[in-house]
Amino acid sequence: MAVPVVDPSLNPSSVEADAVVADPPRRARRRPARADVLAIGAYVLLGVLVCLNYWGDVEHRVSSHLPTDHSWFEWLFAHGAYSVQHLENPLFTTRQNAPDGVNMMANTSLLGVTLPLAPLTLLLGPQVMYALYLGAALSATAATSYWVLSRHLVRSRAAAFVGGAFLGFAPGIVHHANGQPNFVSNFLLPLIVARVLRLGEPGRWRRNGLALGLLVAYQIFINEEMLLLTALACLVVVVAYAVQRPRATRERAGSFVAALGLGGGLALLLTAYPIWFQFNGPQSYRGLQGGVFHNWGEDLVAFVTFARDTIAGDEAVEKTIGLTEQNTWFGWPLVLVALAALVLLVRRSVPARILAVLVVVFTIASIGPVVRFNGVETDIDGPWAYVPDDLPLVEMMMPTRLSLVVVAAVGVLLALAWDTLAGAGRPPVPAPRSGADDGGDDDGGTTARDTRRRVLRLAGFVAIAAAVVPLIPRPLPAERIDPPPHFITAGGWRPYVPEGRTLVPVPIPSNVHGLHTLRWSALTGQEFPVPGGYFIGPNERGEGVFGAPNRPTSTLIYSTMDANEVPEITEENRRQAVDDLRFWRASVVVLGAGPREAVLRDLMAELLGPPQRVDDVWIWDVRDRV
Questions:
Q1: pTM for the model
Q2: Is the peptide bond before 99 cis (omega within 30 degrees of 0)?
């Protein structure tokens, strides 16, 4: 998420910049496109590197960090393809959590990606599509960040490349690539920020407002949480700029407000029904049970720690700090370089001062309700200790993710610092000579100053490189997962599942159990509906909970798996099993190979009677019983 702001020093004709984002100098526009092509090519290679472990066996590997999320997003790609192929409403589905279904707008559904890519998913399959898109999203985010930086903030393409690479592949972003492609799909955010900061341009309020509205509307279907973070960052940037440039702000306020109103109105018009459906449609909910996300704040030590998925990272340190997400994890060299850059640039640069405000505000905000230090909760309250758990919009936020704005600010700061160093080496405009050379030692003094300047520039470049090279990502960790049974992939289930009935896999998919059985649905194009699943839906009080409410039979299955022993089965258990199968509209129960296959077969035999062996699975045909 880039936060581009213009440095007044880039425009020699206007030391006091009136706009937050300005058009680039004409000289920059005429630069050859070769630098752009090389930058994008490097980003693509980095994207391939990050996903390298998946490509070794793409159909049988998932993230070893978040295998459930990985499988969920494979299922989402299948959902997009199914919705397009069958012309069904993509905002809701009963292919999971049958018969109640899942509100896709109330979940991270990535509809802005899965729907337009549906033809490719149908052609390549959801596993290939997932790995392909993951690397492409990282690369695209870096590329749009590079474009915005090079066109609106810096002259040096090398500076834009460094900033873009960090914004696309920062440790906090790559960490989310472990099963959460929605948090690496940030390619629209630099364009949104750049457009927001140009809303005050005289005479262009319609154009800017329309462009902003379209971008915001589309981003809603990619990741609403990142859009909210971007909006908060833009608010801080605009306020910080207004404080520093009150006259320019007053002059442009009218155009800014008009464009913002037009953009907001257009975005609302385009997304009104989906947003209504998200909060009022079937299977919608209000907040998460217990405000579970509010306790997830950023550990102070995390800022100076190398992330696991970087070449300097160490898994042992990750376990010590014990955080669920690594949203910052800059490493101590980058923290030192960033602080030094802020100290050196903040007096001469409006953008640097704005970046400093962003870093301070969002670092503090990311701490959470309690200050954590090296994995230990201190007795010091954090800012979120005073934020109500049920505050609208905020109720779903995770404090640690606010530090992603700090990531963006650091990326822009790196570009600004590199560009400042590069600019220091540009030859100055020679002053007109008014007389003959007086024979003094000016040349010697100038040469000494030039030498010192070159040494300092080189030291600055080396410092930035030393800070970012350790953060080069490693291939994401992956683990092998068994393929679905041949009975599933070959369509052996078809005679057993008539229209309107479900296939009940054992174990029933949930947010803890049944990872492999959820993939049965994804890898068959969601041709049969299944009960349970991995999603957020309402409980009996309308609060959001992970997964479907457990029924007696699903609870019995999970407890048997955990104990690896069949409990004593009563007639009440058998009656409940029939009731549950009737609720699920089941036609066949299927058990495939797995680490608990034997004990689950014995359990289901106690509940439903002896199974049949068909192909490579055990089945219980229950059409006549429910």
A1: 0.90
A2: yes
Q: What is the dihedral sign for C-alpha 418, 424, 426, 429?
A: positive
Q: How far apart are CA 243 and CA 586, in angstroms?
A: 64
Question: What is the token pair recorded at 552?
Answer: 């007696």
Q: Do 139 and 211 touch, CB atoms closer than 8 A?
A: no
For the record, the structure tokens of 261 come out as 């109103």
Residue 314: its pLDDT value, please? 82
79 within 8 A of 114, measured Cβ to Cβ = yes
Write the DSSP symbol of residue 404.
H
Chain centroid offset of residue 398 CA: 13
Cα–chain center distance at 354: 24
Task: State which residues of the chain have pLDDT below 70.
Answer: 1-32, 289-294, 318-320, 322-324, 389-395, 424-446
Helical (H) or strand (E) element with 590: strand 586-591
Tally: H helices and E strands in the chain: 23, 12
Task: With beta carbons less than 8 A apart as the criterion, state whether 488 and 614 touch.
Answer: no
CB–CB of 194/4 below 8 Å? Answer: yes
SS3 state at 96: coil
Distance between CA 319 and CA 321 in Å, rounded?
6
- Convert the pLDDT of each residue in 525-539 to its tens digit: 999 999 999 999 998
Amino acid present at 84 = V
Cα dist. 487→247, 351, 527, 594 in Å?
72, 61, 14, 15
Give the pairing of strands 502-506 and 586-591: parallel
Strands 536-538 and 586-591 come out as: unpaired
